[in-house]
Specification:
The protein is an alpha/beta fold and 384 residues long. It has 13 helices and 13 strands. Helix content is 43%, strand content 16%.
């Protein structure tokens, strides 16, 4: 049997929210864990689906009791299984809920690429699965989503961002690099043998976790994308702690504290009040210069990755933009420029702002949909 669900990812998030509202410890991380478990296990029957969630979501006896109390109430009518019958056709079988759901097939798959790649350190890296409530959501341009889709895409953006952040943490918190002979420790361990060296001891250098600084353009020309890009930042920074976020249009504003809010909608509402020039004009050069003057001393060094999310339209002085890029290039390890318009087949980087910035950029990529954001962040990791 195969589960079909149009809103599986969003439904898992909603179920965790329901549990949390009743006192359970079921946050967004719990939803990620549940989707991870579903992607790695076969759930051919409703009972198996319930068992996977029951083993993943509750964190205490009280949570378990809440899960048992609320499970049927929440999932009633949401799940539908199809069983194969002779001749290759499919007969519907209602396992949970009554009445026919006419919204179309629920889910076709939870895709996961289980192949592995090897990085420069010889470590295996695993591609992050992109959870999708319907097959093309990862490729759909952010500007094409209607209000009816906001719940689904918002849940997916947060889940994907956290999955990518977890991959970054695994890479940089693990011990990597070649083994180095530890003379002192070897000498101490072998003293009991009268100076005869019987056990050799080695040590590994710990890779330093890079700091990520994100500068997101929230000018009028970026209106269709800014909300989704900031939500991606919000999800990413909940897992990857060495991150600082800023928005800019005609001036620069630090938003790291707002994004540490428990709820993204609350953070977004707070931003609308604290950023007076949201959806205004664009002065990229002035904003970058302001960043250099006010924040570079504490944030920038060769272990910093600077990510600029902007379409490159600059109403200010282009010379100021180029001067800022030259200075940033000298101070940081990598500069990444994400442009939502770059996903268009006919795109060419002809605007003056991009032409001034691109010579100093290590990675230029699109950020027009969830798949492009995921690919850009994976490519950033490969630059390290």
């Amino acid at each position: 049997m195969t589960l079909h669900s149009q809103e599986l990812s969003a439904s898992i998030v909603s179920f965790c929210r329901l549990l949390r509202e009743h006192g359970a410890l079921a946050g967004s991380d719990t939803a990620v864990d549940a989707l991870d478990a579903l992607s790695q296990n076969s759930f051919e029957t409703p009972d198996k689906f319930r068992q996977i969630l029951r083993a993943t979501i509750p964190k205490s006896i009280d949570d378990l009791n809440l899960f048992d109390t609320l499970y049927d109430e929440f999932w009633h009518g949401r799940l539908r299984w199809h069983r194969p019958i002779p001749g290759g056709e499919t007969a519907e079988q209602e396992e949970i809920g009554e009445g026919r759901n006419d919204r179309g097939p629920l889910i076709e798959s939870i895709p996961e690429d289980k192949s592995t790649n090897t990085n420069d350190d010889g470590n295996e890296t695993h591609p992050v699965p992109l959870f999708s409530p319907f097959p093309s959501i990862g490729q759909k341009d952010f500007s094409d989503f209607s209000d009816d889709n906001l719940k689904e895409i918002s849940a997916l953006i947060e889940i994907t961002a956290k999955k990518l952040a977890q991959q970054f943490n695994r890479r940089f918190k693990s011990r990597s690099g070649g083994e180095v002979f530890d003379f002192r420790k070897t000498l101490r361990r072998n003293m009991k043998y009268g100076g005869e060296v019987l056990n050799l001891t080695f040590k590994r250098r710990r890779r330093r976790e890079n700091r990520i600084v994100l500068l997101c353009d929230v000018s009028k020309s970026m209106d269709l994308y800014s909300r989704f890009l900031i939500q991606f930042i919000y999800g990413f920074q909940t897992v990857y702690r060495r991150i600082d976020a800023f928005v800019f249009s005609t001036s620069l504003h630090r938003i790291s504290d707002q994004l540490r809010s428990v709820d993204f909608q609350e953070a977004l509402a707070d931003l609308s009040e604290t950023v007076p020039d949201w959806s205004g004009g664009t002065k990229i050069g002035d904003s970058l210069q302001q960043f250099l003057e006010d924040y570079s001393a504490g944030l920038l060094n060769k272990h910093t990755w600077l990510i600029v999310m902007s379409d490159g339209w600059d109403a200010g002085e282009i010379d100021r933009l180029e001067d800022a890029m030259i200075s940033l290039k000298r101070r940081v390890g990598r500069i990444v420029w994400l442009n939502p318009l770059a996903g268009h087949p006919a795109f060419e980087p002809t605007v003056r702002g991009l032409q001034a910035a691109l010579p100093y950029v290590d990675l230029f990529a699109s950020a027009h949909n969830l798949e492009s954001l995921q690919e850009a962040m994976i490519n950033l990791e490969k630059l390290s």
